[in-house]
Fold these 2 entries.
Entry 1:
Amino acid sequence: MLFREMREDDIWDVVRLVRKNYDEAVRQELPRVIVDFLKDELTVKYTRQYLNNYRRKMFILDDDGIVGTIALQFPRRLDELPELRSLAIYPTRQGYGSILMENLEEYVRNEGFRGISVGPNPAAEIFYEKKGYETYGHYEREFPTNPRKKLNGPLMFKRLI
Ligand SMILES: CC(C)(COP(=O)(O)OP(=O)(O)OC[C@H]1O[C@@H](n2cnc3c(N)ncnc32)[C@H](O)[C@@H]1OP(=O)(O)O)[C@@H](O)C(=O)NCCC(=O)NCCS
């Protein structure tokens, strides 16, 4: 199993994976706002933009093919925390979520940050809590294609050192 930075030639596989996540979110009847947000991010254009964004690093987990993705958004100021973004795994591959998160946290620790934050996702809050994240504020995230549309919820964080 290999955790590595995402490359340009991974984009189509990653979009296919996020598409699977979206289908699963629809099937599980997750909150509408989550389904809409996933749909908004579900394009080659946005994936490429994120990949080339200097404040973002994207990673994949390879286990005989790409089985999960996770991203890190670096803060604007060094005394702020980086943020975990775009965690997605193949719906049937339980366990990969924890592996992706642990690898990302290790990366963040090695970069010298003292913690990591994560924004709202009603579908994954229990998962974050189980992984040691605590709520410390409120977060309002703009949709990629429509900044007037917002995803609201708790801002969580985990101390890493
Ligand atoms: C959230 C997600 C990444 C978790 O990945 P996973 O591989 O299923 O997680 P793990 O198997 O490592 O789970 C670790 C623990 O969290 C629990 N857990 C995982 N997802 C959960 C969820 N959505 N709700 C409640 N608990 C959850 C597991 O049961 C497990 O509990 P245990 O340690 O008591 O056995 C995955 O379910 C997913 O891709 N969801 C859809 C996309 C999404 O919401 N992404 C987050 C966007 S930032």
Entry 2:
Amino acid sequence: MTAFNSEKNLERFVSLVSEHKSANHQLFTALEEAAIEGNLTKELYHLFAVNIAARTMLSLPEIHACCIQASLDLDPLRTSYSVMTGAEEGGSGKPKEVHTVLMMNALNYHGKTVFGLQPLNLKYFMSLVRLLHASKKYKQFLKLKESCSGISDEILSPFVNREELIDICKRTSILAEIQLPNEPWETLLDIEKVEKEAHRHLLTANVLQETIDYCLAQLDVLTNMKTGYLQGVGFAHEALADGMINKMFRIMYAQINRYPSEDDFMQNVYPYFSAHGNYIEVYNGLSENSEGVEVTHAQRELEKLSQLDNEAMSVAWIGTNDFANRNVRIWDGLMNAVESKIKTFN
Ligand SMILES: [Fe+2]
Ligand SMILES: [Fe+2]
């Protein structure tokens, strides 16, 4: 594959994301103002934390899907950059520094200290989302089977693999605490029950429908090996990350007076932020920008984009748009929930 995408072409991607509603959403300003004014309630923080966590739990798998795609393409630049980013997000050999772990520690410590909240269980959310995704696929499998009467599972397996779906359902249902029907699952009614239960559990846990839709789409992205699409999603994801983390920091730091000391915040919450950049220095006017790892990740994604041919690039453009739009729907959904819960936000 030849690198022939011009700087001008790449700039379109940068502008699309930086000018997108997702990058400058009013939700974060509203939440920061509420935190400063003491209006960020326990209920609102919980809603925010649940949806940020559920949204972000699929970032790491997406980055590793990029590694697989690039290495299958035998593309040295895309492979090495994806692996570097994947290693950084994955804690670089230190389990306690996996970004998802740092994020959960920060959100949960803040929830406990400021609001007396119980910790969120991310594995529970992940299990529910995967169970919902697998049960939807299983439904497609049954419908496909119904429309081709007499066809064997083996012939259908390249399209939908029944054994794999059953395996996912069995493993995820344990953590999701959902009872599965007895095998063989041969009727739509059986699997629809599982799908509805997983969906109900997610909504009950305060995961918004917009976040559920985002997660299901991200699970599809992981298996979408169409050259360019995953790359486009990867770019938007990384390019939006630094701004989002900075805004999360500002919301949480605005409640510093609810901590026993600044040291307590720095030791228990800040590690998530310091793993990404020097947000506290930006906040205090000591630095102009975060110089964060997500900025580097976005830069790498841009260079990876430059490796694509024009056809893959136009598919990447769709991926970038889709990701930014899916992301904004979560912020819109949260904003609606915020507005309906607190009138002082207007
Ligand atoms: Fe990260
Ligand atoms: Fe990143």
